[in-house]
Amino acid sequence: MGAFPLTIALLAAIASLFVTASAGAELSGNYAQFAQCPYKNPKASKCIYSTTSGGEVALGSTKVPILNPVVLQGAYAESAKSNVSKIIAATNGTTLSKASQPIPGGLMGIVAPPDAPPLVKAVIALLFENGLTKASASLELARPANEIRFSEENFGGETGPALTLPVRVHLENPFLGSSCYVGSASAPILWKLTSGTTSPPKPNKPATGTAGEIEFLEGGGLVKTKGSKLVDNAWSAPVAHGCGGPLSFLVNPLLNGAAGLPAAAGVNAVSLESAISISPVALVGEQAGN
Description:
Layout: H1 3-23, E1 46-59, E2 62-65, E3 70-77, E4 85-88, E5 101-102, H2 118-128, E6 136-141, E7 149-150, H3 152-157, E8 163-172, E9 181-182, E10 189-193, E11 213-217, E12 222-232, E13 240-241, H4 248-259, E14 269-280, H5 281-287
Antiparallel strand pairs: 1-2, 1-3, 1-14, 3-4, 4-7, 5-6, 6-8, 7-8, 8-9, 8-10, 9-13, 11-12, 12-14
C-alpha cells in the first residue's frame, strides 16, 4: 500500500473513532453527577443527585454521626395528579450508596463524657473502638427504588414530607456476622423526611429542617441546593435480627437490650445535611449527546 492510501485509511480510522466517541459522549462539568440518571426512561422527568455529608441517626439509645458521604441518585416521574413523585432507580442499580459510619463507643457503646480529658477519650476509644469491639452502621434501601417518594413542592415549600425512604440499617462487626440488620423488606424503617418542622410524639421535641440556599446553574437548567437539612423524629425502629450467626439466639437479645430496641416513635431521630442537584432529563440527555 502506498503512502497516500495509507494516509486515507488512517484518517478514516480517526474519523470513525471520533464519531463513536461523539455518539457515546460522557457527561461533564456540572452534569457529570447525573451519569447514572435513567434519562432515557420515558417515565423520567427530572434527574436528581443528592450527597449527604453530615447529620446524625439516633436509633434507640445509639447515636451515629454521618461522617462518610451517602449518595442518593436516579430520576423521578412527576405526576399531574399529585405533588409526590416516584423515584426511578439509577442505571447502575446503586440508587442509595452504602457508606459505613463508625459507631461511637463501638459494640459496647461506651463513650467518654464530653468534658473528659483528651487522654481519657483516647484511651476509651482505643479500648472500645478497635478490633472486635469496633462497629459500624450503613444505610441500605429496604424496598425497591420505586417505593421512594420525593415531593419537589414540599421540599421547596418547607412543609410536609419531602423525601420518604424505606430503609434498613446494617450493623457491621466481626462478632455480629454479615446479616445483622435493624429493619427489613417486610418491616422497613420508614423515614418521612421534611425540610419543614416535625410534630413528633413525646419525649422528642419538634425539629426543623431547611431547603437551604438555591443556586441556578447552566443558564437555569440545573438547580442546586446548599445547606439542605431533612429531618424526621417521629419514626419507630424494630429489633435487630440476624446478629451473631449460630449464636443469634443469644446475641440478638443482648444487642437489642444494649441498643434500646425496639424503639417506639418519639425516641428515634434522623437529620440529613445534604447538597441536592436537579435537572430535566431532556437537558441531561442533550448534554450526553442523545
